[in-house]
Amino acid sequence: MPKISPAKSIQWLIILGALALFLYWKFDVGIRRYFDVDEFAHLHWGYNVHLGNKPYQDFFYNFPPFFLYPMAAIFSVFGRTAASLVAARILMFIVFLIGAFFLFLLSALLRGYFFAAVATTVFIFLPLPYDKLVEVRPDLPSLTAALAGLYFFIRGREGKSRNKFFLSGLFFSLSLALVPKSLFMLLPPLIIFGIDLLRTKGKERMFILKSFLPFALGMLIPGVFLVVLILNTDKPLLAVYSMSRLSVNIANSLSRQFYMAPNLFFYPNDAYYSFAGYNPVYFSNLAIWIGAAIYGIWQFLVSFTLDDEKKSQRLFLLTGVFLANLIGFIRFFPLKHAQYLMPTAPFAALFFTMLWFDFWQKTIPKRFVPIATVTGVVLICILGFRMYRVKRNWTNAGTLAKLERILNKYPADSPIFDLTGETVFFPDGYYFCCLPYGQYQQTLLFDYPALEYDMDKKNTLYVHAGIPERLNVIPDMHRKYLEDNFQWSDDGMMERK
């Protein structure tokens, strides 16, 4: 076993210490941070699945249903308490850890373990989309599954392992089943499959075709589960329509009403960078994303010039996935919410780290390169700590206290028409919940229950709107009905007159 020099040992101690700090800060922010309205929506829908209700049939839902079942399992274990919400955040942290581990493995394929450790540290630090990577939403599990699929694809292809090809197909399909936008992750591997078929003949081509079969089988398994879940809703056509065409129509409608430029979140924003205006955290984020984009394009071109086929195709796959997701965000996603940057973020960290390493190796004497690398890690630790000190104060204490008051005041079986999802632990008082469905009412081209009829049928006595302005995001007739028949109470609740 080769000996590790004292200098190398010190470098590893520093980088591992930095990783430990960043992971602790991420975990602490995750359990403290206030809950986003999207999180409440997913939690609320998950609780309704726990009650035995079916998406699409019993409540409006325009996503694939996979994510609801882990949420329902959490409620089965922790019950109707605020602890369930924190448990969901802890689950997301575990999923994040797994995703960071696969990023480490992918990065190591390019430059080795030390490079991979630095790239993973940069990813955990990355201010945008830092907050989204602790939230309860399907995007993070989808990203983690896609990273696993990409890693097993590379390993399966290089080792000619059908088992790894099977795992690759399984994880890619799971990623798509959680968030269909992850399709961009799959494009470069499919291109490689196509190139392999065109370049080979005879037995070698037959092996590639046989390798594709376990990949396809892996892809098929989540698809079969999805079909079963769709059939179980008792309204399969509505389910397919809701998660496909309707979802696209809603996104297009909202994008026309509320235009979001692709660079919207790259302007100063204290919600992401912890500080208002121009500040070191903001500039570090900008440097990482811009540097990664430029160097990612360059490395994509370099991948076509390398003599080593293994290195060439590894680089092509990783740069291809990075650029495909970046182009998808800029050109194809109608809405530019920060969570849609999540599939791109690991690769932004990877290619910025590659730029960082290559810059120092080409500009300073070799013996000073480790010092420059470690100095950079220490610098982002300082910036990460500054960011953490602010974010740890943006807590969910007030929200959880409000939820406890509502849980103590209203009977557990009381249906609540919740416009934000914050009440979480109650049956739905109306078919729609949690969403500003009045903003895209013109896209809802299917038969859904009339508000008055459905609320009378369910004997809905309570509405949660949070604030009066929330009534403005539902159809005017629905708003008028609520204002005429309900009166405001405590904690953003409305009670039937």
TrEMBL record:
Chief location category: membrane
Bilayer topology annotation: Multi-pass membrane protein
One GO cellular component term noted in the UniProt record for this chain: plasma membrane
Membrane-spanning ranges: 9-27, 59-79, 86-106, 112-128, 140-157, 169-195, 207-231, 282-303, 315-334, 340-357, 369-388
Molecular function terms, GO-annotated: pentosyltransferase activity
Domain of life: Bacteria
BP term (GO), one: lipopolysaccharide biosynthetic process
UniProt cross-references to InterPro entries, sorted A to Z: LipidA_mod_glycosyltrf_83
Keywords: Cell membrane, Glycosyltransferase, Membrane, Transferase, Transmembrane, Transmembrane helix
Localization terms from the record: Cell membrane
Protein name as it appears in the record: Uncharacterized protein
Species this chain originates from: Candidatus Gottesmanbacteria bacterium GW2011_GWA2_43_14
Organism lineage: Bacteria, Candidatus Gottesmaniibacteriota
